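Hi team,

Below is the intake form for Trk system potassium uptake protein TrkA from Marseilla massiliensis. Please confirm the fields before the structure is written into the shared record.

FORM ID: S-0412
PROTEIN: Trk system potassium uptake protein TrkA
ORGANISM: Marseilla massiliensis
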Amino acid sequence: MKIIIAGAGAVGTHLARLMSRDHEDCTLVDEDAERLEGLDSEYDIMTMEGSPTSIKTLKEAGAEDADIFVAVTPDESRNMTSCIMAHAIGAKKTVARIDNYEYLSPKMGSFFRNIGIDSLIYPEVLAAIDINNGLKMSWVRQRWDVHGGALVMLGIKLRATCEILNRPLRELCGPDDPYHIVAVKREGETIIPGGNDELRLNDLAYFMTTKEYIPYIRKIVGKEQYADVKNVIIMGGGKTSVRAALTAPKYLDIKIIETDEHRCEQLNELLSDTDTMVIHGDGRNISLLMEEGIKHTQAFVALTSNAETNILACLTAKRLGVRKTIAMVENLDYVDMAEELDIGTIINKKTIAASHIYQMMLDAKVSNLRSLMMVDADVAEFTAEEGSPVTKKPVKSLGLPFGVAIGGLVRNDVGMLVNGNSQIEAGDTVMIFCHEQKMNKMEKFFKAASIW
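The structure came back. Fields below:
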């Protein structure tokens, strides 16, 4: 597959890294030579200095026979223009990063396809979805719904109250048990566990279960004392905060604290149809937090543009008694530090956007692909095609690559867990967990093939 990425910012470079690990024919284009410096040697890609809205640059980059052209510069107009031009030259599929929510209206889809833009990506909207999923459960670090919630993956930090520590998983996760452990993060290492592995104190464990067993999971991990989230304080009034507030469950009482007075006025207009309260002030000010009821707040969300500020603010909120904290950490260098400090849920809208685009590049029927930064892994929903290899043998005989786990499947809208004797059928939606970048190796299992 030939791929051209316009824009060597955080989204573009992360996407290039994903392409590099799959050894795809990838060219990264940017006007700034400094942004491109060293990327061609660090990743297995080509780099080109030039404007993505230049026909000459697009032709030199190979847009005429590109399978997919992705424009993720900071400028929405340039992204859309370059996609239109690349399509006119011959690119088979185009994706543009945008920052105008109106463009995502389903009614606009055919319009954009007609002018040469196949897909639109709004990173702040994708981040808001993850934030609100995180707010649904105060005791969960990460929640991922498969097929509309028929299956659920829960990332949970295990404390001393957990009932299932220090016991072999073969005693806990048998064929008839209502959950599987698909991955464990322990002291910086990711483990795809087997029957002899055990869960230990302070592990970050990823549980796969069905919705009706979520209360049971909450009990065995010792999280019943965590109060459900009702009151939320968000620090920072940027686009992600707006999208999160507009799409949050109605039962949440949300306050946004913003330092810029003019932006506060804008927020009041943008959020006029909600019950969100906008407060002018500094979310790091303990006196202000106390005044706004931090002691009775179940979740604190730090969404400023500064990763250090967000991390420190979450630490302060935890010290003041908030159980659930979410931090926007755009600088990937700070992700490990945030994890070591036990911040809670970490959001990086650029990696979320890159994962969403990466999903479009896989040949198999893949949906809802996400990168889990905490465990350096990808999780995605694959649909088994008629006659595909995955439908021809039980799971234990498929010969799946090391580092791959099947968490469960959805058949006729009913979620079910998978064991070695399970037989996947055509049309099943299967949750695949891949550690160490093996998602592209799973495509062949789910695509129709005449020879197994």
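SUMMARY LINE: The chain is about 30% helix and 25% strand.

Thanks, M.
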